[in-house]
Write a structure and sequence with these properties.
Elements (H helix, E strand, L loop, with lengths): L16 H4 L6 H19 L3 E4 L10 E8 L6 E9 L9 H5 L9 E2 H12 L13
């Protein structure tokens, strides 16, 4: 007897976490856990950004934490992968997942953008501008 499978929600190839908030199972919890990984990377490397996996479940996409450093000789900005994580368990994935470039969106969100996103998720009615009139 065949079980009926729900077709997966497609993930745009250039999606960011902000684009996917509507499809996430637990948006605040998911973004909070991603932010924890970003903060750990930033402490270790001085920078952190995240790309989402585009081949998994839109309800809990895997994600790749990276950091950017300036090459001292060429002065070019070079991106380094820190680690990839399961979107459902937030456990680190095996390194071969990172190497497969087509697994990851080309668009990243930096730690500041993810912090702002969780703020909006936790308080959706807050004014978006700090210069907005206060009641």
């Amino acid at each position: 007897m065949a079980t009926k499978r729900v077709p997966p929600t497609p993930i745009a190839v250039d999606a960011t976490i902000a684009d996917m908030v509507e499809t996430l199972d637990k948006p605040v919890e998911y973004v909070r856990r991603v932010l924890e990984k970003l903060e750990r990377c930033k402490r270790a490397h001085g920078d952190a950004q995240v790309r989402v996996g585009v081949r998994g479940r839109a309800e809990a996409p895997n994600y790749l934490i990276e950091y950017v450093r300036e090459d001292k000789k060429t002065l070019e900005r070079v991106t380094y992968q820190d680690a990839a994580y399961s979107g459902s368990t937030h456990r680190e994935l095996a390194p071969h997942h990172i190497a497969e470039a087509r697994n990851w969106s080309p668009e990243e969100m930096n730690i500041t953008a993810v912090s702002a996103l969780i703020g909006r998720l936790r308080n959706p009615r807050a004014p978006s501008s700090r210069f907005a009139d206060e009641d």
